[in-house]
Amino acid sequence: MGPKIIAYIDGANLHQGSKSLGWPLDYARFRVWLKEKYDVETAYLFIGLIPKNKDLYTSLQESGYVLVYKEVTYDGNGKVKGNCDADLVLKVTSDFYEEHFDGMILVSSDGDYAGLVEFLKKRDKFRTLISPSNNCSFLLRKLNIPIVYLDSKKNILKRR
Description:
160 residues; globular
């Protein structure tokens, strides 16, 4: 058995990033691709908990994601606020110290994760960044890490 690889996915960043590309992401196919390409055993998807989305959550779980819910709040205009960054960083850090993985994949374009990535890279635990957006943060790009842009996998991952 090979090394244990875990993917940590910023759900909002993946959703917004794939939306910005102008093509619908097939989440089930994405999960299979993570397994086949990177041998991802567990894929944690950090996502805001909105009751009306329960069918989406069921579908994601059936596709093989482990959902990590964040309670959402609403701004003055009724827009959902459910930033999962701190929860994702805490989960990765906890899993690192408890030695739950040999390597990790991060799915996000958000520069807020640069410190985490740098920490894991120095300890040879960081494998690949999958950037949902073609506008991946400079803070991540400057770390000299493997980056795969989701748009380059459109032919494999686009919902048909």
